[in-house]
Design goal:
Strands 1-3-2 form a three-stranded mixed beta sheet, covered by helices on one side. The chain starts with a helix and ends with a helix. By secondary structure, it is mainly α. The longest helix is centred in the first third of the chain and has 13 residues. A hairpin with a 2-residue loop joins strand 2 and strand 3. The chain has five helices and three strands, in the order ααβββααα.
């Protein structure tokens, strides 16, 4: 199921369909978590799947790479901790203007 979800990560309608099917099969799909999720959907245990960060709308590879690299220093304790540890080089000009 994780491979199927990952293969459709850009198709929200399919993600919803497959998450519902996973639930019908007795599998729990956990929401994305800045401290737990990887880029792709992943197996947590025999009945749990963790949502992949690439399936989150408008979150790209650069942001995820920066988050995962910063997370090597341990889990993020707060939003302030996250903001202080990530590399902002991945932001586009559009994002900088929004800040």
């Amino acid at each position: 199921m994780t491979a199927l979800l990952t293969s459709e990560r850009d198709n929200t309608d399919k993600i919803v369909e497959y998450v519902n099917e996973a639930n019908r099969m007795g599998l729990k799909v956990m929401p994305p978590d800045i401290n737990e999720s990887d880029a792709l959907f992943k197996v947590v245990d025999s009945s749990t799947i963790r949502f992949g960060l690439l399936a989150v709308k408008n979150v790209g590879h650069g942001a995820i790479d920066s988050i995962l690299a910063a997370r090597k220093g341990g889990v993020f304790a707060s939003l302030q901790d996250l903001c202080g540890r990530i590399d902002y080089a991945w932001l586009t000009g559009r994002c900088w203007r929004a800040l």
